[in-house]
Amino acid sequence: MLSISQCLGRPSQALAMEGKLPALDAQAPDFELEAAAQEGALAEKLQRDAFLGSWLVLYFYPRDFTSGCTLEARGFQRDLSDFKAAGAAVVGVSADGTEEHVSFCSSEGLGYTLLSDPGGVVSERYGSWSSPFSQRHTFLIDPKGILRMRWLAVSPSRHSQDVLRELKELQQS
Q1: Which of 53, 92, 143, 171 is the most buried (most CB within 10 A)?
Q2: Active-site pick, 21, 33, 69, 102
Q3: Where are the beta strands (DSSP E) in the chain?
Q4: Which domain of life is it from (predicted)?
Q5: Is-catalytic flag, 7?
Q6: How does pLDDT run across 80-123, given as a tens digit for each residue?
Q7: Is the per-residue pLDDT at 56 higher than 80?
């Protein structure tokens, strides 16, 4: 049985509920997912490599419009200008479709990208899939595409601040 400390922080490998988490200090798993488009715009697919050259906060969450997910999304929105000032993009991933994401972004005033992973393929690559939902995990990827940090035990109310604090610490080291 793994302890919480073995699953958090910087161990080279850890297990998630339904799969193996990607190793820290190694290339982050690739992804190509459809992004939520604004009304009238064509949907586009985004790949991990589109974020090379900047930090990426890639957070997985179960569902749009649920209380914990809404609280977490609002936190990232509240701190979005601080993430941008630190050279980081924020991207959310769930199994919801792009139409739900568009509605969620509009309803909550989200100014960052949400990606649709309906079959959980990418969520599974990140050890963040428990069918039929993504688990609440977050990954911090550096400008070279290296996975630098992960969060498995997430408190939606303060999570964005935790990620921002760690991002700034990593940038100073």
Answers
A1: 92
A2: 69
A3: 15-16, 19-20, 32-35, 45-47, 55-60, 88-94, 113-116, 129-130, 133-134, 137-141, 147-151
A4: Bacteria
A5: no
A6: 999 999 999 999 999 999 999 999 999 999 999 999 999 999 99
A7: yes
